[in-house]
Amino acid sequence: MEVTILFFLSSGLFLGWSLGANDAANVFGTAVGSKMIKFSTAALICSVFVIIGAVISGAGASHTLGKLGAINTLAGAFTVALSAAVTVLIMTRLGLPVSTSQAIVGAIIGWNFFSGFETDPKVISKIMMTWVLCPVLALIFSSILFWITKFIVEHTKIHLIRLDSYTRILLILAGAFGSYSLGANNIANVMGVFVSSTPFKDISLGSLYTLTGAQQLFALGGIAIAIGVYTYSRKVMMTVGSNIFKLSPIAALVVVLSSSFVLFLFASQSLHDWFVSHGIPPIPLVPVSSSQAAVGAVIGIGIAKGGRNVNYRVLGRISLGWISTPIIAGIFSFITLFVMQNVFMTKVFS
Q1: CA 20 to 30 Å from 148, out of 15, 63, 92, 182?
Q2: If pLDDT is split at 50, 70 and 90, which confidence band does 199 have?
Q3: CB 240 within 8 Å of CB 29
Q4: Residue 116: DSSP 8-state
Q5: pLDDT tier at 1 (50, 70, 90 boundaries)?
Q6: Whole-number Å distance between alpha carbons of 338 and 61
């Protein structure tokens, strides 16, 4: 039984590895691309804080995916996660920072079509809204933060060597915060489809803390993300970090802060509850793409600098990847589910 469970979870772990290779790296992509932080240092910090964020705060965004499609068998969850992972892997091989969030959403919709379950138009419209809102917010934040940072640097007249040291430290802190937010937000992409059929039981760690079955799933997913960061993320880091727009160290810091804050907005249950309690429309708890946040923030810097040196050819390739990802994942999910049920005689929904 344990071997069967591990087999079904393997696609989620594969998706986690794909996310680490593609999405997670973007938290530190600009820092590595601007040569302010070594890849090995960025990978270590990103890996540790992704796992912490996934375990502590990963539950919030997973509920939205559950509303989109409550996949009720391990075999179905395995197939959906595998379809999303293969899609992300293909895009990663092309060097495109695509959205794992879009891949898993497309794969879930493919499962809905195959199983006959209705796709709630309100839920899908909310999710698609965040695909636009995420990079736009990052663009706005980075533009504003760039001008504020530029004003501070010009008027405080900090020595260049000291400024360089401060920037490195702040990049590490911002990257750690972004990695935590990424784990909290994007672990729903990796293991969210397994929550409804989780094979794990709650574990009581004394009288103070209980590690739920979902948190155990999230911990496994977080480790898979960390492995992806270490083994396959360098190419996408360089695409985001240096190919769209050449970034100075200060600009790299602004991008990391802006994209990290956007990820946090879409992941924080406490912030969501605070908005609701004060009658303010809340930011939806939806897994969003660190790639979209980072790309939006880089474009914001480019616009703040006049927009003359933005590489629109690379930007066009990235946009094409974002559009095609959910479509490819949905089609691949439907075909794979058909094969699983009719060739391997495995029940993918109930």
Answers
A1: 182
A2: confident
A3: yes
A4: T
A5: very low
A6: 28
Cβ–Cβ under 8 Å, residues 90 and 331: no
Q: Are 215 and 53 in contact, with CB atoms under 8 Å apart? A: no
Higher pLDDT, 18 or 271: 271
**Residue 243's pLDDT is what?**
61
The predicted model scores a pTM of: 0.84
More confident residue, 305 or 114: 114
End-to-end Cα separation, the chain, in angstroms: 20
pLDDT of residue 240: 60
| SS3 call for 245 | coil
Could you give the CA distance from residue 49 to residue 179 in angstroms, rounded to a whole number? 5
Answer yes or no: are the C-beta atoms of 68 and 123 closer than 8 Å: yes
- Whether residue 333 contacts residue 119, with contact meaning beta carbons closer than 8 Å, is answered with no
**57 pLDDT exceeds 70?**
yes
Distance CA 165, CA 170 (A): 9
Q: How far is CA 58 from CA 66, 115, 117, in A?
A: 13, 27, 26
Q: How many CB atoms lie within 10 A of CB 331?
A: 16
| Range 40-59 burial, b when 16+ CB lie within 10 A, else e | ebbbebbbbbbbbbbbebbb
Tell whether the model's pLDDT for residue 156 goes beyond 80. yes
Encoding tokens for residue 174?
């911002």
SS3 annotation, 29-73: HHHHHCCCCCHHHHHHHHHHHHHHHHHHHCHHHHHHHHHHCCCCC
